[in-house]
Amino acid sequence: MPKAKGKTRRQKYSYNLNRKRLYRSARRRAAPRIACSHIRHAWDSTKSVAQNLAEMGLAEDPNKAVPIPKKLLGMELESDGRGQRKKIVRKPYVVNEMEYEASLPEKKSNTLSRDLIDYVQYMIRNHGENYKGMAQDEKNYYQDTPKQIKRKINVYKNFYPDEYKNFVASLKQEKMDVQ
């Protein structure tokens, strides 16, 4: 089928369109995306970002919150005697809850796929420690080398040490029953 006549033409650039204004208004309308639930619940949409963060005791600009001392920069700073104003933290519970969450120990999320566990168990069951035999096995669909198979078995040993010990013990038990 032939192409439509107007499809191949280049679009004309509109010089009269103010793109900066369009971009700014779109950014202004978008609400800030807040990841932390504590901040989200304490957020007041009628106030600015700086005001909200100041009330929670959080810093808007990390460079202003923790300034680099001028001595480190190689310049001497003369103090004029004026102290900085202290900011009033009206919502200290937000920072406290965030600190508590950060202090909790992290859960280990090391898991392997069920397919990989079955693959490793099959190889150990049929070949024991013979990695070259494992590499030549017909179930080695991905054509792993002996080193790659050994690495997969070591990962399985590290992620599930108790399960591995029980599995090896059950294999020894099966060999004893067969004999």
UniProtKB/TrEMBL annotation:
One of the GO biological process terms: ribosomal large subunit biogenesis
Pfam family, one: Nop16
Entry keyword annotation includes Nucleus: yes
Keywords: Nucleus
Signal peptide annotation: none
InterPro entries: Ribosome_biogenesis_Nop16 (IPR019002)
Record's GO cellular component terms: nucleolus
Keyword Hydrolase: no
Protein location: Nucleus, Nucleolus
Domain of life: Eukaryota
Main localisation: nucleus
Family the UniProt entry places it in: Belongs to the NOP16 family.
Entry protein name: Nucleolar protein 16
